[in-house]
């Protein structure tokens, strides 16, 4: 068995299925989060797409899903193959360090030396074969001790994503394209984004992390020792009858912090982070503008229509219509429009304003309209 | 009794309540035509507004309503005072010459010398007192033998209305502002409309006609003798048991022609038409742009919201929202927008495209979506 085959055999997929996707309201909401929708027209949910992408790497018995208690039934309906011991239920959301860290701690206890790869349940990736090739490289680099992230080769100067500045190539067997990471940078303005793309050194930060579970826990312990202590205490009893009581006591007190801050950025600063430049199409479908873009193939004048049995009539209109009712929807002379039609709520905006949807959700919360959130 | 009091005593209001108002789809539709909606925020339907405007002139026992059979119950629910003999039901729509001509023929047979005033059921008039003063002048001019129309003093160079070119003042007792009419002109382009308004000679054609019933019938007879023959035959049996059979035989064959062509324009050409320049606010609320204008008081940046219990959340948006569901409607950064939300159909367009709504209705008809029309 070659070294790299051995590492692949120790690979475990982890799918954090948590965020609601408030920028996709009223489609995404508390009881129908983004990962339970078909946003690509693939005919299945983003969660199922994510699962199907990982099965050829991990097999369907080595993928763990971390999700909210409220979504258990929906997740299991989407993933009938998902084994009970691969379901980790959060009693309340505690951010990505707790979710991925708990998965790492549980798996490391069950299977020391396991390599985990965490992939959000609600992103879109077009070329799965290329994606898996990048993950294989990442697994090799993880086996060598690195915390590894997949960066995405930018196709345009997006201001909607954070960037990873890559540095020197690393010499890792089985990971020929791996580079070290100089730094992470937050979402830039357009001029900066253009410079980044022109330089060739910058990649989109897609939030995908691959590492040995013990290495992830070690990084968390260095930066957030109390969080690590809680995670280890949880893992200790996870596969025992005490799980419930310990979860109730510990989980609600865990620090809410994104894994970028507890693991990735400190590891990068210490030279322990590697990046694999991914050559596949990726999008976090963060708002309706990006869904419209995915569906129009970049053509400005198109009207994308999502929704089974949609009855849409368009005269000189472009943008996106999401129809989750059987109502007739007529659009006349509206350009770059976003119309999202659900049984209890309707959104009308433009691609340019798509990022502001979250603010509307916040305003609805304050105004006592939580019934539609 | 003065001459003018005598004429006013012979006055009979006629309200043709016919058109669906296709440009106001999906609000207005076959089973809920424009005149059955509250488009002004008055708290009552346009039909009821029209009735209330006429009662001080005619009394509630001297107003006749001409409407479709399908709307009888709705009309009677709106107008509990409406006497049975004042309801004229059309088995199918035959345009305004047939509707107003039949009312004239029935009333003339019942009460020779009657003066009728026909006022659409679905227009908006703001200053009813000034309106009634103009109608009183019109009644005096009608008593003198003229076909009389109320023209509206333009407040802007509208390209949505036809115009009336007024000529010399007429010397008619009780009608000091009456002028003769030089011609009717169709909806102009903007440059022409601006010239019209600057000249001071042009008035908006509001389609309101006041005349002795015998004079109207005489004009119809001159221009459309077959139509007149049919109307007289109908009137002859209207108040007898034969009405049903004769209606079934004659009504479907009557020529469909607007009263502008069978009466007003020929009378104008012959010098038998008078116009009273009306100083009251009038609008035919022909499309959603005009409803938005009525509600915003002309302020461009406002968002008008129609609909009881509407739950509308707006961020930097202007235009009009009509909410006939209890759904939450969120608008973000859409300007001059028109959103009409009904249980089975949704319209999204802009004020500038409001006139095109009729074309969409036609397209829906062709595409087999008559269920929402």
Automatic annotation (TrEMBL), chains A, B:
Q: Which UniProt keywords apply?
A: Nucleotidyltransferase, Transferase
Gene Ontology molecular functions = nucleotidyltransferase activity
Which Pfam families does the record cross-reference, listed alphabetically?
ManC_GMP_beta-helix, NTP_transferase
**Top-rank taxon, per record:** Bacteria
On whether ATP-binding is a keyword of this UniProt record, the answer is no
Entry annotated with the keyword Nucleotidyltransferase: yes
Domain Nucleotidyl transferase, by residue range, is: 13-295
* Residue ranges annotated for the MannoseP isomerase/GMP-like beta-helix domain, each copy included: 315-364
Name recorded for this polypeptide? Mannose-1-phosphate guanylyltransferase
Q: Which organism is it from?
A: Leifsonia kafniensis
The organism that produces this protein has a lineage beginning with: Bacteria, Bacillati, Actinomycetota, Actinomycetes, Micrococcales
């Amino acid at each position: 068995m070659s070294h790299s085959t051995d590492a692949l055999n120790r690979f475990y997929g982890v799918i954090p299925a948590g965020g609601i996707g408030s920028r996709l309201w009223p489609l995404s909401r508390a009881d129908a989060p983004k990962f339970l929708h078909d946003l690509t027209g693939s005919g299945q949910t983003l969660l199922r797409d994510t699962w199907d992408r990982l099965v050829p790497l991990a097999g369907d018995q080595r993928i763990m899903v971390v999700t909210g208690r409220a979504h258990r039934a929906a997740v299991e309906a989407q993933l009938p193959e998902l084994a009970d011991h691969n379901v980790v239920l959060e009693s309340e959301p505690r951010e990505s360090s707790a979710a991925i860290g708990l998965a790492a701690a549980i798996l490391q206890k069950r299977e020391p030396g396991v390599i985990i790869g965490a992939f959000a349940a609600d992103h879109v990736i077009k070329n799965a074969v290329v994606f898996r090739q990048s993950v294989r490289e990442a697994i090799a680099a993880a086996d060598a001790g690195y915390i590894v992230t997949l960066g995405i080769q930018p196709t345009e100067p997006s201001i909607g994503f954070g960037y990873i500045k890559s540095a020197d190539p690393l010499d890792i067997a089985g990971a020929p394209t791996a580079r070290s990471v100089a730094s992470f940078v937050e979402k830039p303005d357009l001029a900066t984004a253009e410079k980044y793309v022109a330089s060739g050194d910058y990649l989109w930060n897609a939030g995908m992390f691959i590492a040995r579970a013990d290495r992830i826990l070690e990084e968390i312990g260095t930066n957030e020792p109390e969080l690590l202590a809680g995670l280890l205490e949880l893992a200790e009893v996870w596969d025992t009858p005490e799980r419930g009581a310990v979860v109730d006591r510990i989980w609600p007190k865990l620090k809410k912090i994104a894994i970028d801050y507890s693991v990735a950025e400190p590891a990068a600063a210490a030279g322990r982070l590697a990046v694999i430049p991914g050559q596949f199409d990726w999008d976090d479908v963060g708002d309706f503008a990006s869904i419209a873009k995915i569906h129009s193939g970049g053509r400005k004048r198109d009207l994308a229509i999502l929704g089974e049995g949609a009855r849409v009539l368009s005269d000189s209109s472009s943008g996106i219509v999401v129809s989750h009712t059987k109502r007739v929807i007529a659009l006349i002379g509206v350009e770059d429009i976003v119309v999202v039609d659900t049984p209890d709520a309707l959104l009308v905006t433009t691609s340019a304003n798509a990022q502001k949807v979250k603010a509307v959700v916040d305003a609805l919360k304050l105004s006592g309209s939580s019934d539609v959130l």
